[in-house]
Amino acid sequence: DMRTxxxxxxxxxxxxxxxxxxxxxxxxxxxxECLQEAMHEHYKHHWFPLVPSKGSGYRxxxxxxxxxxxIGKAAGMIGxxxxxxxxxxxxxxxxxxxxxxxxxxxxxxxxxxxxxxxxQPGGKVAKQLESxxxxxxEWRIGRSSPSKSYNMMTxxx
Length: 157
What we know:
α1 packs antiparallel against α2 (25-43) and α2 (25-43) packs across α4. β3 (101-106) and β4 form a beta hairpin. This protein is 42% helix and 16% strand. By secondary structure, the protein is of the alpha+beta class. This is BTG1 protein.
């Protein structure tokens, strides 16, 4: 069952839209429902609770100079164009929706923040997390982090 994870992810994207302003509450409610439906349909054969990381790339929601198709589809249902979405949402957003965990990053070098975590697969204890203050501030501000240059060593195989 992926309802909690999908609901958490859709609520997060909806909060980003609400924080940006200019979208009515009824439109936001419809957007959230449409996004949840699109995610459920998209993930249904790519959800592996016994191996939570399997299929993670497929379930990743991404805005990076291109609009994620699931967000684009839900926005289209309420009449928001991709151009308008790019104005309202962070230009760099990655949202990971995995069994037992939903996390996000704003900006390519931003902190990864956990929105939902259930550390015990099959356990009853689930908790919503509002992560560190820096994470809250990042989405409230809705900006990309300034880019930093790193010296990286890469390993090729």
